[in-house]
Amino acid sequence: MNKQNQISIGIDFGSHNIRTAGVDTSGNLLTPIYVSEDLAPDDSVKAFELKVVAMLKKVFDDTDQKNIAGIGIGCPSWNGAKQVIGIAPNLPHRLQGLPLGIKLQNWTEEQGFGKLPVFIDNDANSAAVGELLFGGWGELALNMVVLTLGGGIGGGVIITPPEVVMENGKIKLVYHKEKTIVLRGHHLKGAELGHMSIALPQGMKYYSCGCGNLYCLEGQLRVNAVKMRAMDKLKENAGMDRLSTIFDQIRKEHPEAKIMKELIPLVEPRHINNAANDNQDRLALNIEEEVAIAFAQGLRNITQIFDPSLIVIAGEMGKKWPSLTKRAEQIFRSQKGVVPHSDVKIGISKLRNSGILGAAALIFQEWL
Ligand SMILES: [Zn+2]
User: Fold this and answer.
1) Model confidence pLDDT, tens digit, residues 276-319
2) Which superfamily, per CATH, for 138-349?
3) What is the pTM assigned to this prediction?
4) 336 alpha carbon to ligand 1 midpoint, in Å?
5) Alpha carbon of 195 to ligand 1 centroid (Å)
6) Counting Cβ atoms within 10 Å, is residue 112 exposed (0-12), middle (13-18) or buried (19+)?
7) How far is the CA of 328 from the centre of ligand 1 (A)?
8) Is the preceding peptide bond at 191 cis, omega within 30 degrees of 0?
9) Do 3-127+354-365 and 138-349 have matching folds?
10) Beta strands of 139-236 (E only): which ranges?
């Protein structure tokens, strides 16, 4: 089999829709991206399966079918490299436990392609595999942690244990790609980096995480946590900072909102991002600073535990708010630890369509 010509079908499973396309071994899209209609909460499981199969059929029709190597699915659930959708709080409840991989494999057989491999993995793990194969990070990616910032905080850990060799009397570490693994843990539920506890400076407020723990990184850094912190700050400062450009943006988007009580709940992380960057708005910078402090604690824990060469910030909020990562990196660089912080590169994902590419990469990763 000539691996160069192979195609993987990537399926990016979001909480609202599904996106899929064919991908080559260099990470190029070979077909249009097909997007499902909304995953209506009242869809039956059968209706859901039919939607997925209808989309897959379009991708199969658009590609050189004899070169299709398999189907990779990135899914917001805990399951890991299996064929079943696991516990998935952000997906319709009835989809949990659905052996979608087995059903799709049977479908590929019925269509005359044989039983093609179908892998379902946690979307942060698939994002990490996507960065490994297509992210453009070179050897740095061989020991890499990927953090996805969005509605939740996902984590993917790529590990390549070095071989210690002597060269001209000096110790040298050599990394072999074929030894690279994704850390998935004993139950295939790792690595949930969003649920690590972090320490905040005294007086800084913690926001509860959905898992029930008060101190999680996710509880401070997910979109909703940023929103809650911003709402609290806006309430505290409503008198003084009535003229903050955060309010200008909200007023523009929601002309119907007039008074503080109506304006404040409409704040979103993008308003903070814009106000901090465009106008150096004092209140926005203050909110960004607190979020960055929490973020930096996460980067510190990751570095001390995994000793990575690279931490990649991905996910929609991570990509769209680079000044947050920049500030978190500055704080991180100033912190102390046994594993030196100066040796870790912090980068923001450059991948477009990273959900689809990461899912597709699950198939190619087997060939490393
Ligand atoms: Zn948690």
Assistant:
1) 988 789 999 999 999 999 999 999 999 999 999 999 999 999 99
2) ATPase, nucleotide binding domain (3.30.420.40)
3) 0.93
4) 25
5) 4
6) exposed
7) 20
8) yes
9) yes
10) 144-149, 153-159, 163-167, 170-174, 181-182
Cα 21 to ligand 1 centre (Å)? 32
Q: Cα of 216 to ligand 1 centre, how many Å?
A: 5
Q: In this structure, what token pair is assigned to residue 294?
A: 């929490």
Distance 214 CA to ligand 1 centre (A): 7
The Å distance, Cα 1 to ligand 1 centre, comes to 44
For residue 217, how far is its CA from the centre of ligand 1 (angstroms)?
Answer: 7
- 125: tokens are 């793990």
Considering the domain 3-127+354-365 in this protein, what is its CATH number?
3.30.420.40
Question: In the structure, what pLDDT confidence band is assigned to residue 16 with cuts at 50, 70 and 90?
Answer: confident
Handedness of CA 20, 21, 24, 29 (dihedral sign): negative
| Ligand 1 center–CA 329 separation, angstroms | 22
Among candidates 156, 91, 103, which has minimal Cα distance to 308?
156
pLDDT digits (tens, 9 = 90+) for 78-96: 665 678 887 777 777 788 8
Domain boundaries, the chain: 3-127+354-365, 138-349
Q: How many CB atoms lie within 10 A of CB 103?
A: 15
Task: Say how many Å lie between the CA of residue 346 and the centre of ligand 1.
Answer: 23
User: Which candidate, 179, 79, 163, 166, places its Cα nearest to that of 126?
Assistant: 79
